[in-house]
Design goal:
Helix content: 10-25%
Shape: globular
Number of helices: 4
Distance between the termini: 5 Å
Number of strands: 7
Structural class: alpha+beta
CATH class: Alpha Beta
CATH architecture: 2-Layer Sandwich
Length: 162
């Protein structure tokens, strides 16, 4: 079974290279533009709680986190299915560009190819040993302040038992 941590980094890295998505998630911090697409890794301590990181996500931003691994021999070849969540908040009028709506952000994430790739993220081998992802899904959620946010789920089968 592959370690999920570098896969989280790989997903966040690919999302950062989708031009329209990176532009929608970029803000000025000081004098520099910063793309707010980040990987989340579980660590011990109060500063590493996923719920707190989601709650404190600024607009706009995306956070990629591992959500678990399902075992089982699905087709005689796939031993594991890894599940990753992409939490996202759309921007507001104070960003570098006009805010991009949630529906548009999800469409960009799923369909637009990263820089230098002929295919979108749904058809890419994101990490050695992984197959092409299952069809991604997205759902609406509310945070503690009843602000809209969405969470997309990417399920990626692992080929063999690495």
């Amino acid at each position: 079974m592959l370690n999920a941590s570098p896969i989280v980094d790989a997903i966040a890295g690919v999302l950062q290279t989708i031009p329209d998505l990176a532009a929608a998630m970029t803000v000025l911090e000081g004098q520099s533009p910063v793309c707010r697409i980040e990987a989340f890794h579980y660590r011990l301590g109060m500063d590493y709680r996923l719920a707190q990181r989601i709650y404190k996500m600024p607009a706009p931003s995306m956070l990629v986190a591992w959500d678990g691994t399902q075992g089982g021999n699905f087709d005689g070849q796939t031993i594991w299915k890894h599940r990753f969540n992409v939490y996202f908040r759309m921007g507001n009028a104070a960003g570098l560009s006009e805010p991009v709506g949630y529906e548009d952000l999800w469409s960009i994430l799923c369909n637009q190819p990263p820089a230098g790739s002929p295919v979108g993220i749904r058809y890419m081998h994101l990490y050695p040993g992984l197959d092409i992802m299952d069809t991604p899904s997205v759902a609406h959620a509310l945070d503690e302040d009843l602000q809209d946010r969405f969470v997309g789920t990417l399920v990626i089968p692992e080929i063999g038992d690495n």
